[in-house]
What does this fold into?
Amino acid sequence: MPSFNQTYVEQILQEAQKDVRHQPWKSSTVVNDNPTEDKVKIGTQSDNLFDGRKMAFRLEEIDADEDFPELIQCEWEAYENPEQYFFRLFCPIVGSHPNARQESLEECTARQREWHLSDPTSYWQKVVDTGTGKIVAGALWKICSRNPFEEQEHESAYWYPEGDRREYVNAALELFEAPRSRLAPVPQWKDCLLVVKDLNIIFTLPEYRRKGIGDMIMEWGVAKAAQMHVDMWLDATIYGIPLYKKHGFMIVNENNLCPQRESPSKEWEAIHRELSPMVMWQMKKSV
It folds into this structure.
């Protein structure tokens, strides 16, 4: 399995740092007691041109009845460029036929919408290019009134077909969740990052990166956590670390998500090759 040696990590961090270079943009943040009313409005970025026009962005809560197809399409495009293996734990392409990706995307869209509607802590945001109305980025925050890991249950990855591929993903998800319950003991906390079920998501379409959108989203979260007087916890990929460090987060743990098994089956070995390496870094920002 490829390993995350120090030289490789430094190389990726240098490449990822390009995506978080500061660019001038105006913002006003309003944080209310009701998170569904919180919005960040972004003014025109004079140095940002796209297709010959100046750009402005708006951050707002999604419309659960209308936005999920476009939002999750944006999510898939973002995580596939560059490919981030952990994403397939939650959003696999099932099958190899010509329509496999589209069918899997539709299933994933319906599932994430269901998860959102059934979870009172779920708060999805979208970033809209005001010039086109297009969703260009998204973020999922879990805003909790108590520690969600006090009574943690591991749900089977039912979105995978039965067999060792599902068992591999189940084992990887247990590895993913283990340090979170150990490292986040406070009764109130905010957790942000990628992908659903007890973790959050942040993503931007490739062509809209390096335009301050990640900063916009993180500023909203940092302001909300300060209002709630809670620490912030997140799980970062190698590509996200520079952005989170920029906003005051510190690495507190490294977590290899690739499970091991004695005498693995061919099915287990196949998905292990497909998803390796999978390393996440737990990061914290104190109040």
In short: Residues 1-6, 16-47, 187-199 have pLDDT under 50 and may be disordered. Residues 164-183 form the longest helix (20 residues). The chain is about 35% helix and 25% strand.
